[in-house]
Specification:
Length: 333
């Protein structure tokens, strides 16, 4: 059976990269397969956080999912920490993950920076918890942005190692990454070599789903570009990271290709293109922000939806945890 699992961390506000690399694809995929969409709040604790802000962000991310078009009745939508199986399976999987595998993870190196000894164990072990998130539901497909490819490969390796160790061929399916659409890696607006991230200190590096029209226009106007007009071909575009990023965003937002965008704007100055990109971004994001606001105005209803999702997820998770305990040799009553 096919099943989708994916999630986002409630660290700060969601941005255009989260939307184009993941959320927009989830909305399409929910029609084809059963799906579980999680607000991965335990992951958000791997970096510095403030409890009150975390609480707000959890509800905001849930509201963003629904506002973007995720149906909370058809799919399971919940927050990770309300299903204890994530933490339980995490521990068991840590006992099957060689340190050498984790040492290869590039995201840890980027996030820990130069101060590796001060980085917390949770940040280092984060990919194992991510594997537990997916395997707890025996998910087969994981729609994510390009940056998560390495973590998903690790999840597959851990699943394979577990199955082999307990001679339980096929117990955990090996989850397939689904890296879809035109904008699988949206770059920072300030630096075409860095991915757009929630954790980037610069607000001008990203467009948040909740930015108002003036803020979006300002951020796009300030976005780094080179002095040349837009190129005519995709081949020339690929030599210019910042230009490539803006054209890719335009293509993804309008469900077309970079070649089609260049057919329209190739040879023009960036000032004209940036104006069109700002208008398009506002047209696509403002309805989502409006709906998020409306949903956040009724916290009781949002919490009711999350609780219902957690109950449904909890049933599946409990089944897997019991099966895992039996396989590994733990006694349960
Ligand atoms: P953080 O900086 O806190 O890690 P993030 O922006 O990377 O935040 P996550 O919550 O880690 O966001 O990721 C949620 C989803 O969004 C994942 O599927 C991830 O691959 C995707 N994603 C994140 N950033 C981008 C990006 N710049 N382009 C495309 N997809 C992205
Ligand atoms: Mg991330």
């Amino acid at each position: 059976m096919s099943l989708i699992f994916s999630g986002m961390q409630p660290t700060r506000q969601l941005h255009l990269g989260n939307y184009l690399g993941a959320l927009k694809n989830w909305v399409k995929l929910q029609n084809d397969m059963d799906a579980i969409f999680c607000v991965v709040d335990l992951h958000a604790m791997t970096i510095d956080h403030d409890p009150e802000t975390l609480r707000n962000n959890i509800r905001e991310v849930a509201a963003a999912y629904i506002a973007a078009g995720i149906d909370p009745d058809k799919n399971i939508l919940f927050n990770q920490s309300s299903v204890s199986g994530h933490a339980e399976l995490n521990w068991i999987l840590t006992c099957h993950t060689p340190l050498g595998w984790l040492n290869r993870m590039t995201q840890f190196k980027e996030k820990a920076g130069k101060q590796k000894d001060n980085a917390v164990l949770g940040l280092y072990a984060y990919p194992v918890l991510m594997a537990a998130d997916i395997l707890l539901y025996k998910a087969t497909h994981v729609p994510v942005g390009e940056d998560q490819k390495q973590h998903l490969e690790l999840a597959r390796d851990i699943a394979g190692a577990f199955n082999r160790y307990y001679k339980a061929d096929g117990f955990f399916p090996l989850p397939e990454p689904q890296i879809l659409g035109e904008a699988t890696r949206v770059m920072s607006l300030r630096d075409g070599t860095k991915k757009m991230s929630k954790s980037d200190e610069s607000e001008y590096s990203r467009i948040n789903l909740t930015d108002d029209a003036d803020t979006i226009a300002l951020k796009i106007r300030k976005a780094k570009t080179d002095p040349e007009p837009l190129p005519e071909t995709v081949e020339d575009l690929e030599k210019r990271p910042e230009a490539n990023n803006l054209v890719t965003i335009y293509a993804a937002l309008s469900d077309t290709t970079r070649a089609a965008v260049l057919a329209e704007f190739g040879g023009q100055q960036f000032s004209a293109f940036k104006g069109a990109l700002a208008d398009l971004s506002v047209a696509k994001l403002a309805p989502i922000a409006g709906e998020m606001n409306r949903l956040l105005g009724d916290k009781a209803e949002l919490d009711r939806l999350l609780k219902k999702g957690a109950d449904r997820a909890g049933e599946i998770a409990a089944r897997t945890v019991n099966e895992v305990k039996d396989l590994v040799g733990l006694v349960r009553f």
